[in-house]
Amino acid sequence: MKKENIVQADAGIRPYDFFAKVMGGKWKPYLIRGISHKGYIRFNESMRILGVSAKVLQQQLRELEDDGIIQRKVYSVVPPRVDYVFTELGEKLVPIYDLIFDWSLDRMKELNLPIAPFSYSFHGQSTQEEMDYLERIFSDENAAENK
Predict the structure, then answer these.
(1) What are the Cα distances from residue 84, in Å, to 2, 33, 34, 105, 110?
(2) For residue range 32-91, what is the model confidence (pLDDT) as tens digits?
(3) H or E segment to which residue 48 belongs
(4) Neighbouring C-alpha atoms within 13 Å toward the C-beta of 58
(5) Distance (Å, whole) CA 117 – CA 24
(6) N or C: where does the chain have the smaller number of CB atoms within 10 Å of the terminal CB?
(7) What does the DSSP 8-state code read for residue 79?
(8) Does residue 95 sit in helix, strand or coil?
(9) What DSSP element (H or E) covers 128?
(10) Within a 10 A sphere around the Cβ of 103, how many other Cβ atoms?
(11) Cβ atoms of 25 and 67 closer than 8 Å
């Protein structure tokens, strides 16, 4: 991380600013939850599931890697395979994201806000229909990668 981006003149770094800098980004929570759910994520799979552009996904993954949250595991196989996995530091974020998810869900219910389909998928609360759908997606991806 480039600390000059978050250091306040003669005041040091505020913890909330630090957290916002490290974890800011639309897709980072989804990437973190994906890794916590499967133990790893793959680039093309993440791009397809999230509907994010390659450029943005690459940027978000690189930032998480630069900040010590995830690491790339490159396998010497044909075709090439790269998994993104947690570092020890990254694993510590999972309970924090669980709390944020639970707080958001409770508040949304209090406000009678509609909850998007598949919101529960990576939190162990999905319906069987959601799990079957996700299993088909992951199975299709694995079959395509192994060709």
Answers:
(1) 22, 12, 10, 27, 36
(2) 988 988 899 999 989 988 889 999 999 999 999 999 999 999 999 998 899 999 999 999
(3) helix 43-50
(4) 3
(5) 24
(6) C
(7) S
(8) helix
(9) helix 128-145
(10) 10
(11) no
At 121-146, the pLDDT tens digits run 656 566 667 667 766 766 655 555 55
Q: Which residue has the tokens 């957290």?
A: 19
Residue 29, helix vs strand vs coil = helix
What's residue 141's pLDDT?
Answer: 54
pLDDT in tens, 94-120: 999 889 988 998 999 999 998 877 777
Radius of gyration of the chain (CA): 17
Contact 31, 60 (CB under 8 A): yes
φ and ψ at residue 12, rounded to 5 degrees: 85, -165
